[in-house]
Amino acid sequence: MSAILGPDVNVGIELSAEEFDWIVTFLRRATGIELKEGKQTLVMARLERRLRLFQLNNYTEYFQLIAGPNAPAETQMAIDLLTTNETYFFREQDHFSQLPGLLPGEAVTRGRSIRVWSAASSSGEEAYTIALILAECLPDRLWEVVGSDISTRVLETARRCLYPIEAAERIPERPRRAFCLRGQGEHDGLFTLKSGLRSRVSFVQVNLTKPLPELGQFDIVFLRNVMIYFSAETKGLLLSRIEDLLRPGGHLLIGHAESLHGLSHGLETVAPSIYRKPVH
User: Fold this and answer.
1) Residue 28 belongs to what domain range?
2) Which terminus of the chain has a smaller tally of CB atoms within 10 A, N or C?
3) Is 203 in contact with 159 (CB distance < 8 Å)?
4) At 157, phi and psi to the nearest 5?
5) At what angle do helices 152-160 and 72-82 cross, to 10 degrees?
6) Among 44, 59, 85, which residue terminates a domain?
7) In the structure, what pLDDT confidence band is assigned to residue 3 with cuts at 50, 70 and 90?
8) Catalytic status, residue 149
9) Is 46 a catalytic residue?
10) Which phi and psi (to 5°) does residue 4 adopt?
């Protein structure tokens, strides 16, 4: 779940009002995120190190660098730095309690794989939480989880699947004992998940504000705690694209603090923050 957050630290190169306006426009165009007034210090905290690396005197010089056609890597770096990700295992537990009841029956799937998309997967905890649930309730059926995020940095973390051992405390005891492995040696203090479970989870970079890549059809889409950063127009476009990827009878889950109120869509409300695509 990409968000503009992060620690407030001392910075030495000041960001002018015009430069802040530039970064607001840049972030909106690149990610759809609407950066609010008052985030100037956080922007400086995230980008000042890059200015010093390139020996630049001000943010305007840095913007000229990332606005150029020959700096795609640095443009991605700026996006990665400006989108911080708050997530953890079994976040908003109620959704995971309801997940087994939202899965299609075997008669519906007819032997095909059940597919779930964690559309703003951040560093992977949501996608792996979904996998833990599916591994428990569908031990003899085919399933897969796709996680996506705009940040290449957090996707690297997700693919490594190495987390502080303290993070495992949020995982219920039964799946923790069944699927979690304590790190040893250089990985002491970390944990991972068993390879059989990890192999069913893949990650891909996706910008949710742009036309979506070919991802296939999904039975369930988790789109939680990300639309709150988008404009109404961007939300509407994204919702339409996600509807197209949902199988008939499939479900969309959004954050508990979010709503589809005022947006045009063809989904049925199942429960607060849970929607279903009609079969007909």
Assistant:
1) 2-85
2) C
3) yes
4) -65, -45
5) 70
6) 85
7) very low
8) yes
9) yes
10) -90, 100
Q: Which two tokens stand for residue 68?
A: 């150029």
pLDDT tens per residue, range 209-221: 889 999 999 999 9
75 plus 197 within the same structural domain? no
* Residue 86 amino acid letter: E
Distance CA 178, CA 180 (A): 6
Amino acid letter for position 136? E
* pTM (predicted TM-score): 0.82
| Cα separation, 269 vs 275, whole angstroms | 5
Catalytic residue selected from 80, 91, 115, 149: 149
The reply to whether 46 and 134 lie within a common domain is: no
Residue 119 C-beta-side C-alpha neighbours within 13 Å: 28
Residue from 46, 91, 115, 247 carrying the catalytic annotation: 46
Domain's final residue, options 46, 62, 85? 85
Q: b/e for 143-152, b at 16 or more Cβ within 10 A?
A: bbbbbbbbbe
- Looking at the structure, tell me whether residues 44 and 69 fall in a common domain: yes
| DSSP 8-state secondary structure symbol assigned to residue 6 | -
Give the phi and the psi of residue 237 in degrees, each rounded to 5.
-65, -45
The reply to whether 271 and 148 lie within a common domain is: yes
